[in-house]
Amino acid sequence: MMLIKNYFIYFFFIFLFNYTLYSQVTITSNNLKVDNNLVSNNTIAFNSNLSVNISIDIKMETTDGSTNTTFGNLFLYYKTNTDDTPTQIAIQSITFVNNYPKTNYINNTFFTSIKLFKNDFLSNGGTLYAEYKTNDKKVYKSQVINITGGGHTTMPPPPNNQSKQIFSNLIGNDQIIASGEIPKPFSYYTPFYRNSDNLPGRRGSASSGSSSANIYLTIFKWQIKTRSTNWTDIPGATSAGYSPNKAIYENTSYRRIAFYEGGQYDFSNNIFIIINDQSFQNTICCNQIITSSSSGKEEIAGNTPNLNNFTYRWQSCSDPSNIIQNWAEMPFANDKNFPPSYIQPSTGRGNETEAYRRLIKQNGNVISISNTVSITYSIPNTSTGPTRNDGTTPTRTSKSTTNNDFKTNPFISTNNLSDTTIIKENLDAQNIENKTNQESLKINNNISLYPNPITNYFNIEGAVNINDIAIYDFFGKKINIVKQQKSTNLIEINTTDLQSGIFILKIDNTTFSKTLIKN
């Protein structure tokens, strides 16, 4: 009996080993060329060059012919140094073919015209590698290719260095201009922090409160970045606002650093000045109006640009009507089209508009911004607009700034592309008329959540029971979080242990549901 049991265990492990081996994908890189010269030492060297062009052949092989393994995406990444987070520079949809008469499946993908810039890497070395992600989310990596001769000797500063939460450190807006044109002056908010606020985190939308508690920042530095240069200070640009005074001939990014309390600082959002390139198109479609929770949501579809070696990145904006639009990149949204499952209202209040757009990147740099698509969530009602319990119409206000801390210019970016609107009607949708739902909507309108996107912490402000707060991942699994009651109407949520991604925050006994983006 013992012998039979031992044989059973032996054959079980043999089966498990063979199954695991059967399911593996081997991925190797071949024929690496730098500036059209074949490289034999598996190293990309800048030497005295400011940039190099590389090409590489990625070969993959597996004995598993299932669609979960033979369909997926192949990515090309680089790291500025071994400890850096990877930057995606290319992507290719993959289908394996049967290597008849052998019982294996192969794929050969050739990446060409990949341009790397010296100033994107540290002098002590970076890396490049390929990564294959299957349909069932398994990941396989190639060997690492070393990159030497970068232009930086030290690591750049961390994203933010602050002990207080900074509000309204926002600049705008992106512009698409002709080569040789001078950009219009930038709009901006004056950033501030609350004198009594010691919560860690990043900039967000300020909630209501006494303006006398706001401490406005007065020390600034503006920086510029191009495709061939890293972030560098702009001489003399030390005011809250900035107006470029020279013609732009290549895609360029700007940002502002706000300083306070002994050298602590906070980075603004980045704004992009894009040179209009008529050789390819980057368009998405279409606007949608969602009239009830049961209305179907359509995929936001985009064209395929006539380009080589590029990647997509989708962004969302929860307040597109603001003069300064705060666009946030959406983790994992890097396909040609934007899936309907990602389309979620920002606050769950029922009457709001969320905007989406698609970036095209080459070597991690933005080269194109699509037109904007708007998703409007409109709750059916017998009146002409949303109403309170007393029948009056509420006025939507922004809590992010006051009239005293916003500066703008007459320039408003426009897009000549026409959008088609898809109206989603549901004739059977029930009007929200009963008292329970009205009270729930009233609660939602009194809840503020900031900042979003989030890093390590975010705050919920309003009359909320801390035990009713729950966070779910995008598959509906409830996530364990650390909650702390900071004051009567202020709850702090610690998200340090959450991986980057998209999550849903819900508050029990209300209709409140909000999409969270964790950077």
From TrEMBL:
Compositional bias annotation for Polar residues: 380-391
Low complexity bias locations: 392-402
Keyword Transcription listed: no
Secretion system C-terminal sorting domain: residues covered: 449-513
Transmembrane segments annotated in the record for this chain: 7-25
A Pfam short name: Por_Secre_tail
Protein name: Secretion system C-terminal sorting domain-containing protein
Taxonomic lineage of the native organism: Bacteria, Pseudomonadati, Bacteroidota, Flavobacteriia, Flavobacteriales
